[in-house]
């Protein structure tokens, strides 16, 4: 088991290294550039005594963009291993400081979405499996496929149009209301929670389909097993068969599957947070990326890679604990 875990960790480090290298290469090749924008602003200033090209050359030296991509990446990697991800060009403060300011909004949204998703998807998946090929099964399947197929921007727009514009129940954008500063601490927490309802609903509706279908498929496989038929032949009630025997064995692959959901939701929240202008890590990273903020973009991309790799390692370990045959691979 120890050798299995070590192999998985080394593979994870290998994936993280080359993933970060590819992302650095792509970001360096983006057409948008903070340095070019800043050079243009300084060159157009009445007090400037340099041309645009002179400012650009000087700033490229300051931000080490005058060296090749490979030396630049290894320079970034060396600093990153020491915990120094640089200063955000767009926000003007260290990347990690800005990350700490906004990450908790994303954590709250994604954890709430994760919990709601579990309490909706798993019961509906089990119900669909128990009533296979019935109207209930077809209705749940259609609902799941809609959640899988709908684009984030389309669903978010529909929700905002219906609940914000037509009904006026929620604000279109933002995390707080106009009277937030005059509220008590408890009222401020409730106001933030109120503004998070539509983003959570959006993420939940988009994510429950996959888990629902996965639960249904695994439950059907378990229900067709010999020991389930034996349990029914012994005269056990259907409730006991489902809850005590079938669900326990369905839960094993579900736990492994759910380890993939958090990195997927953090990546997907970039679009949702941007559409609702929630100042979480997704929205802040989007603003940095479109402005060519290489330090922040690199940190956010590496954060997603590490989160995904850790989730994969956890899933592999769970499988290895349940099924010893996996350790030989």
Please characterize this protein's 3D structure.
By secondary structure, this protein is mostly helical. The protein has a domain at 104-291: MetI-like (MetI-like fold). It is 76% helix and 0% strand. The protein has helices spanning 2-28, 34-43, 52-62, 69-81, 95-130, 135-149, 152-166, 185-195, 197-223, 226-233, 238-258, 261-276, 281-290, 294-322. Helix 2 packs across helix 3 (52-62), helix 7 crosses helix 12 and helix 12 (261-276) runs antiparallel to helix 14. The longest helix is centred in the middle third of the chain and has 36 residues, at 95-130. The radius of gyration is 25 Å and the shape is globular. The N and C termini lie close together (11 Å). The model has no long low-confidence stretch (mean pLDDT 81).
- Based on Cα principal axes, name the global outline: globular
Q: Tell me the β content.
A: under 5%
Helix content: over 70%
**Spans of at least 5 consecutive residues with low confidence:** none
**Which homologous superfamily in CATH is the superfamily of the domain at 104-291?**
MetI-like
Give the class from helix and strand content and strand pairing: mainly alpha
The CATH C-level class name of the domain at 104-291: Mainly Alpha
Quaternary state of the chains: single chain
Q: Tally of extended strands?
A: 0
User: What is the CATH architecture annotation of the domain at 104-291?
Assistant: Orthogonal Bundle
